[in-house]
Amino acid sequence: MNVKLLQTIMNLVITPDMREAVNTPATSRGLNRSGEEKDLLDSFSPNQFSSKMNLVDHVNSLDFLTKESEIVIFGSWYGSILIPAFYDKVKKITCIDKNKTMLNMAKYTLFKDLDVDWISDDVFATFRDQFKTTDLFINTSCENMKPMRDWGPIGPKSRYDEIYRKRFGIPQTYTDPWWDRVANREKPAYFAFQSHNIFDIHDSYNCVKTIEEFKTQLPDRAEVLIEDSMPFETGTRFTLIGKI
């Protein structure tokens, strides 16, 4: 973890107005915060920090990343914890998220001096050149999107029943599925995925009850090397790390 970089980011995130709000009586706290500010602060919350650092520590324990490695982060949000954790360890980080406002905050404010690729798109929309050389795919937001096994899935569409379609929609299918394209190369691709069982969060439509259920959402080729469960007051976050 690049602590100096993280401290610089926190100084950008916590503005003077926000500090003033925190120092006022409880009834006035947060009045100066916009929805965007609250969302940004949430990306540094204790639960977010501990769960992402749990993933980082597990990845580091496998000791496969080098200065020539490339990382892609699906549903990257602001990249608040993961970018400082991995930036000095690898050659390239690519962040993909549908929310362009969040990406612009990260690109032009939080990490304006860093060489990070920022892509505003649905991770299921396009197979990109970066994926061909990615060493580690990270997704800490699996609860907010379709199962990772259905990233560029094989057809035909008839494989996906009405229950699936009502929950996730009709998938775009491919004769050359994307995980196969990632796997069929000289070096292995690793993954680090997280989900949780907190079903009452409005945008978490793909929560899982257990880590065993989470495993059923992995690509067929996935070999799990590390699994972990972190209990919080509101639920449990599950981590699966392995290779394709």
Helix and strand arrangement:
Elements (H helix, E strand, L loop, with lengths): L2 H11 L2 H7 L12 H8 L3 H17 L7 E5 L7 H5 L5 E6 L2 H11 L6 E4 L15 E4 L22 H7 L9 H6 L6 E7 L14 H5 L7 E9 L4 E8 L1
Parallel strand pairs: 1-2, 1-4, 2-3, 4-5
Antiparallel strand pairs: 5-7, 6-7
CATH H-level homologous superfamily name: Vaccinia Virus protein VP39
Radius of gyration: 19 Å
Strand order of the largest sheet: 3-2-1-4-5-7-6
Envelope shape: globular
Strand proportion: 15-25%
Q: What order do the SSEs take from the amino end to the carboxyl end, as H and E?
A: HHHHEHEHEEHHEHEE
Contiguous runs where pLDDT drops below 50 for at least 5 residues: 18-23, 25-30
**Cα separation of the termini:** 26 Å
Structure report:
The structure is a single chain. The protein has a single domain, classed as Rossmann fold (3-Layer(aba) Sandwich). The chain has nine helices and seven strands. It has a seven-stranded mixed sheet. The protein has 244 residues and is of the alpha/beta class. Residues 18-23 and 25-30 have low confidence and may be disordered. The longest helix has 17 residues, at 46-62.
Keywords:
244 residues; alpha/beta; Rossmann fold; 7-stranded mixed sheet
What is this structure, in a nutshell?
The chain has 9 helices and 7 strands. The chain has 244 residues and is α/β, with parallel strands linked by helices.
